[in-house]
């Protein structure tokens, strides 16, 4: 593998780490007791995630394509704008970056875990979960959210943005999805974003954490992949 590919793979690791550090970081700020941001609500979380994506894309974007999401990587390969040979290395880098980002959130909020008794709030800092547990409905929500994400990203490629503006537009897309479609499942729309931090939750020594809810974990993996495939197909029919 040449140096250029290694740089791109590293950029996926680094960008996804920043994405989760800032994204799960805002969840920690809102969810954990005695945080200065405690109970500040869904608007703060959605804006925090939108800015997390924006900053992460800026960090990774000068070294590689800044997918930061296996669903995006798969979609770009399906549409012919990305090499299939790099799909697995990118996904591995994204998951590893997500795990490290989640560990950094744990360290940043180290004193707050012990004073937070709500196991759901702790898990919600790391991974997504349904407001109403209904696997078919939860799956549909993740498919729709990811469909909008991928179709939006692919459509952006048909426009000419001022240099440096694209990450802000992507952040606006994430904000829109979070505000409009995030309520039912917490809008994972990214398998690495959910799986990596959920695994960190499982492994980290948090005495009050409870179960990692692996019975739900397949939804934010399968749903986004389906959404990415469908959006890619629609885009290719249009273009």
Tell me what you see in this structure.
The chain crosses the membrane at residues 38-63, 84-109, 135-156, 168-189, 218-238. Belongs to the MIP/aquaporin (TC 1.A.8) family. Pfam families: MIP (PF00230). It is found in: Membrane. This protein has 239 residues and is an all-alpha fold. The protein has one domain: Glycerol uptake facilitator protein (Up-down Bundle). Helix content is 67%, strand content 0%. Helix 8 packs antiparallel against helix 9 (219-238). The longest helix is centred in the first third of the chain and has 29 residues, at 3-31. The relative contact order is 0.18. The model has no long low-confidence stretch (mean pLDDT 97).
Instruction: Indicate the proportion of strand residues.
Output: under 5%
Sheet/helix structural class: mainly alpha
Mean pLDDT, rounded to whole units?
97
Give the CATH topology.
Answer: Glycerol uptake facilitator protein
Protein topology:
Elements: H1 3-31, H2 42-61, H3 70-78, H4 87-108, H5 119-126, H6 135-156, H7 166-181, H8 191-203, H9 219-238
Helix pairs in contact: 1-2, 1-4, 1-5, 2-7, 3-4, 3-6, 3-9, 4-8, 6-7, 6-9, 8-9
């Amino acid at each position: 593998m040449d140096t250029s590919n290694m740089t791109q793979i590293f950029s996926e690791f680094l960008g996804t780490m920043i994405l989760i550090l800032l994204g799960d970081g805002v969840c920690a700020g809102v969810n954990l007791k005695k945080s200065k941001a405690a109970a500040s609500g869904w608007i703060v979380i959605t804006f925090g995630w939108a800015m997390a994506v924006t900053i992460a894309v800026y960090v990774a974007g000068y070294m590689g394509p800044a997918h930061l999401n296996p669903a995006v990587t798969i979609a770009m390969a399906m549409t012919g704008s990305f090499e299939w040979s790099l799909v697995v290395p990118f996904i591995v880098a994204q998951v590893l970056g997500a795990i490290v980002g989640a560990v950094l959130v744990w360290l940043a909020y180290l004193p707050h875990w012990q004073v937070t008794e709500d196991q759901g709030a702790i898990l919600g800092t790391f991974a997504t979960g349904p407001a109403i547990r209904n696997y078919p409905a939860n799956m549909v929500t993740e498919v729709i959210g990811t469909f909008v994400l991928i179709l939006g990203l692919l459509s952006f490629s048909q426009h000419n943005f001022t240099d440096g503006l694209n990450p802000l537009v992507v952040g606006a897309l994430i904000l829109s999805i979070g505000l409009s479609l995030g309520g039912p499942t917490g809008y994972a729309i990214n398998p690495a974003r959910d799986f990596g931090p959920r695994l960190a939750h499982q492994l980290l020594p948090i005495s009050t954490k409870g179960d990692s809810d692996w019975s739900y974990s397949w939804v934010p993996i399968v749903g986004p992949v389906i959404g990415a495939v469908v959006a890619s197909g629609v885009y290719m029919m249009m273009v």
